[in-house]
Known about the structure:
single chain, mainly alpha, Multidrug-efflux Transporter Regulator, Chain: A, Domain 2, three-stranded antiparallel β-sheet, 7 helices, 3 strands, 9% strand
Amino acid sequence: MEEEKILTTQELADYMKVNEKTVIELAQVGELPGFKVGDQWRFSWTMIDRYMQGHVFDSSDDELDSILNTKEHLIPFSRLTGKTLIDLDLHADNKKQVISQLARLSHANHLTPSYEGLYIALEERAIT
């Protein structure tokens, strides 16, 4: 079993490419998922990835391009995926079934609040 990595505020600031003070302020207002140990904040890498994935899915195409197509990745693509986001046994006979499976997988991993909403958005995007 893989051990959960816990990040300090400085480690998270380095990972997110922001100032440590920004991390603390975001945690204090509940924007970043974290917990306190004594008077110091700690962050679950898994929860931070989910937080960042949610922000990536809410981003425009131009913002995503800047993340994924630059030499210095703001968020390495490898950190946006994980074992729970990969289905090697996905079976689909047509585009609608693929879209349905992707929406199901995203919803099951809490990346979208609504399977139906994501399915409709993906279907509309696939048409254009």
